[in-house]
Structure formats: structure tokens, C-alpha cells
Amino acid sequence: MNLAQLMARSARVFPDRAALLHGDRALFTYRELAERCARLAAHLTSALKLVPGDRVALWLTNHPAYLELLYGVWWAGGVVVPINAKLHAKEAAYIVDDSGAAALFTDADLAEAIDREGVPLAALRRSMVVGTPAYEAMFAAPPEASMAPEERAADDIAWLFYTSGTTGRPKGVMLTHRNLLAMTACYFADVDPVGAEDAIVYAAPFSHGAGLYNLPFVARAARHVVPVSGGFDPAELVELSRSVGRLCLFAAPTMVRRLVDHIDASASPADGFKTIVYGGGPMYVRDIQRALEVMGPRFVQIYGQGESPMTITALGREHLAAAAHPRWQERIASVGVAQMLVEVRVGDGEGRALPAGEVGEVLVRGDTVMAGYWGAPEATAKALRAGWLWTGDLGAFDGDGFLTLKDRSKDLIISGGSNIYPREVEEVLLRHPRVREVAVVGQADPEWGEIVVAFVVGDGLAAEELDALCLAAIARFKRPKHYRFVDQLPKNNYGKVLKTALREVLGKEAST
Ligand code: AMP
């Protein structure tokens, strides 16, 4: 089944429902939006000679055109290649070339960046800047007698999802129509039911989780809101929560913290927010507790990765709210339980299931697991082994089926033969009220193999008080040997801390 059928169905059943808003300004109903998708598809097919399976790159900031582009390409049987708008033009060019995109849609600012950098994009021969008269002209001709979405098999590729690339070149994860339909079903089952009055607001990049989550909202003919800022602005979100209401959003943990700070400081009501789904990186216990205190039970956590999009485990709002549960503290530090359509296993080196309490690699099997990496059979064979996706994340189940992530296997520190999970040390350091952010990494050491180093962001902090905090909470060997007080932590374009960059800093210092 083609994902574009979701749009066609919503338009047939609820033609007059509001589909798309720019800020609080209504742009299109479902009938109008679906018609634009069909017209775009007709243009792609007739003028650009797009054939099913062809890739179309989308390199634009969160723009109202994003939805019609996604569904228009699917409608024509194509594959979308959304590219993070924060990438350098050269990085975007790499993805356009790697995917072999037949066409590129971009926005005015990014088109200028392409010109400025003189990037040779093969696909530029067929590029189009959204919002221009030439772009709008594509929608002028009516599609031939209500053209239906192109037939697609469930295992055909729908979305090439380029990994955020914390190391090396980004790889194109091949997500099929089946993968994204299964993700959508799991959203309803394990994350949040969606009603017609709900509104998803795209405050994080469309090219990543926030954009993937458009699907459950199209399926339920709910509203889609593109913020006028095109990004994450806590004050704007609070405004939208008032004017649009029933806001749902996907936010990285750092965004949740900023939103909570803003709501707390401005004493704004939180009742215009329906659901905030967080994930994509560790949410520390201190931060989720505060978020719950300030905004109430509006949160759901998901754990996923591009290779099993948004869908490995979920920690539902009932678990987050159950403060009286004897294991609440452990549970809110966990990533929850396996989502409905996937099997999740903590495996040993051979992939055999480990008993509860033991740490191993997280393995996933089910309909959300990618078809492989685009044009990279070796990387695919490494990630998909014996029927399982090997996530590269380390974790352990408890006896109730809640998974706690330790760290990515490459972030694990081995010091004097003992395993140290940076996340555990980070949780302790964050208990200090003046520690704003922290990242713990290993530094090569001739005596210990590795030693623990903490990079800390905060005001007026002394190593002694942090050391005392650690001594009171964790084994002595896990304490950082060194503290580095820094103004900020290096992050990638999705706001994830780049531990590789921190290790490089330490490595360079050691070799000079
Ligand atoms: P990406 O493919 O860019 O979405 O990155 C996926 C990775 O982010 C996962 O493999 C995890 O290492 C991390 N991640 C995702 N969700 C969570 C979560 N809820 N808690 C901790 N780490 C997470």
C-alpha cells in the first residue's frame, strides 16, 4: 500500500477538515491539500518524467510546502529524501548525489547557499524553489480525472532517511511503506491516540522524527501546524498552544528542557499542549521530573532510531505519572516497554537473549525495521544479522519488561577492566543544581586503559563538590578523574551531543 492512500482517504472522508496551518493561519482543508498532492504528482510524472521508485530530495526548512511535497512524491510512486536544513550545502549535495535524486526541492535561503557555495548538484538541473511562481504553476493544471496514488507494494521504499552521522558519512536508511505504516499503527497503540481536533506542530526538523510523525495525523485527518519561525521557539509554541490548542509535538530532550524553563519562568498555562513526545537522546531523571512538575502528565517517551523509525520502545504517560509506584524512579529513567509491532531483545555477542538485569546490545525485529542502507550492502549486513536489527545501543531489561539504555556501545568506558556507563555518571552530576549540561567520555590512559572525564556546563562549579556528589552516589572507580568546565557541548544538527568530538579533543591533547 502506498502511504499517499492515507492522504487520499482523509480527503475523501473528511474533505472540509482543516489540514494545514501556518502559525495560526489556516491554509488548506484536506480536500485542498490532497488535490495539491495529486497535481504535484501529475506534474512530476508528466513534466519531470518521474517514474515510480525515483528519488526526490527535499532540502528545506520546516515550510508549509513540506507535506504536499512528501505526499505528492509518494502519490507519483516516488521516494522522498528529506535532508536536514541545517546541513552545509556540500553535505546536502553529498546526500543528493548519493541518493541519485532525480529532482530537488529547496527554499529560497538554501537555494542561495547552494549558489554561494557553487555546489555542483547534478539534480539542480531539475530543482525547484518552493513558494516561487514557477513552483505554484505546477499546481495550476488539474490532474487528469482525479488521478489516484500510484500502486506501491508494502516493501517498496518510501523514504530514504539519512542518519544524522555522528560518525562518518551519513547513510541512507531505506524505509518502506510497510515500515512507516507499522510506525503509524504503533503510534496509536503505544504513544498516543489522535483525534480530529489534535494538532501536530513541527518544531523540530521535518527531515527527522518530527516529520515522520506527520503520518498518524494525516491518517486521522487531524491538523498540521508549521510554526512561522520554521523551528523551535518556546514563546511561539506557547502562543500556538493558546490559539490553536491541543498541540502535539515531538521534541528532543534539550528542547523539552527549554520549553519547560520558558513555561516555568513565564508562568504560562500548559493546558494547550496535549502531548509532548520526547526521545532521540537520553532524558535525564532530573529533567523529566521537573517537566512533569511544571507541565503535568503530557509526556510520552519513545526510543527508536532511523533504522526502526520512532519505534523500538515507549514509556507511556500512565507510567510517567505513576509516582506512587515502588519502581517509579527506575521506570522514568528507562525507555519503557517494547512497542506493539516489534520484538525487542537484549542479546549477547551472538544475539542470544540475556536474562533481565544483564546488559547487552539491543536487538529489534518486526515490521518497522528498515530494508537496509541505500547502496551499502556491507553496512546493511552488519546492522541486519540473523533476522534482527543490531542497534548499537546497550541496555538491560528489568523483570517487568522495561528497558533501560546504558549507552551506545562505542561510548562505553572500560577503565581498569571495569565497565563504566557514562549515562550513570551523568545522571549523578546532573543532580547538582548548577550543572546545566554534562557529557562523560573516556580518555585513553596508559595505566587504566581509559579514564573518566566529565565535560560540564554550569556556573561557579568546583571539581571538589562534584566529586563529593559522585562519592555519595556511585562506586569510586566510576568517578571522573578530571572535570572540564566548558561553555557549551558540541552538538550535531539534531542537537545530539557529539561525544566523538569530545574524545577527539582529549586525544589531540594527549598527542601534543
Ligand atoms: P537517530 O537514528 O539519529 O534517530 O539516532 C538514534 C539513536 O538515538 C538511538 O540508537 C539511541 O542511541 C538514541 N536514542 C533514541 N531515543 C532515545 C531515548 N529515548 N533515550 C536515549 N537514547 C535514545
What number of domains?
2
* Main sheet makeup: 9 strands, mixed
Radius of gyration, taken over Cα atoms and rounded to an integer in Å? 23 Å
Overall mean confidence score, pLDDT: 93
Strand content: 25-35%
Any guess at the CATH architecture of the largest domain?
3-Layer(aba) Sandwich
Structural class by sheet pairing and helices: alpha/beta
Number of strands: 26
Distance from first to last alpha carbon = 58 Å
Helicity, as a percent range: 25-40%
Task: Please characterize this protein's 3D structure.
The model has no long low-confidence stretch (mean pLDDT 93). It is built from 18 helices and 26 strands. Strand 1 and strand 2 (25-29) form a beta hairpin. The protein has 512 residues and is an alpha/beta fold. The protein is 34% helix and 27% strand. Helix 1 (4-13) crosses helix 2 (30-46) and helix 11 (253-266) crosses helix 12 (285-295). It is globular. Adenosine monophosphate (AMP) binds at residues 163-164, 279-282, 301, 303-306, 335, 391, 393, 405, 408.
Topology readout:
Blueprint: H1 4-13, E1 18-22, E2 25-29, H2 30-46, E3 55-59, H3 65-75, E4 79-82, H4 89-99, E5 103-106, H5 108-117, E6 127-129, H6 133-137, E7 157-162, E8 172-176, H7 177-191, E9 199-201, H8 209-212, H9 214-219, E10 223-226, H10 234-243, E11 247-251, H11 253-266, E12 273-278, H12 285-295, E13 299-305, E14 308-315, H13 317-321, H14 328-332, E15 337-338, E16 342-347, E17 360-366, E18 372-373, H15 377-383, E19 384-385, E20 388-397, E21 403-408, E22 413-415, E23 418-420, H16 422-429, E24 435-445, E25 449-458, H17 463-473, E26 482-485, H18 499-511
Parallel strand pairs: 1-10, 3-4, 3-5, 5-6, 9-10, 9-11, 11-12, 12-13, 25-26
Antiparallel strand pairs: 1-2, 7-8, 8-18, 13-14, 14-15, 16-17, 17-20, 19-20, 20-21, 22-23, 24-25
Helix pairs in contact: 1-2, 2-3, 10-11, 11-12
The chain binds adenosine monophosphate.
Adenosine monophosphate (AMP) is lined by residues 163-164, 279-282, 301, 303-306, 335, 391, 393, 405, 408.
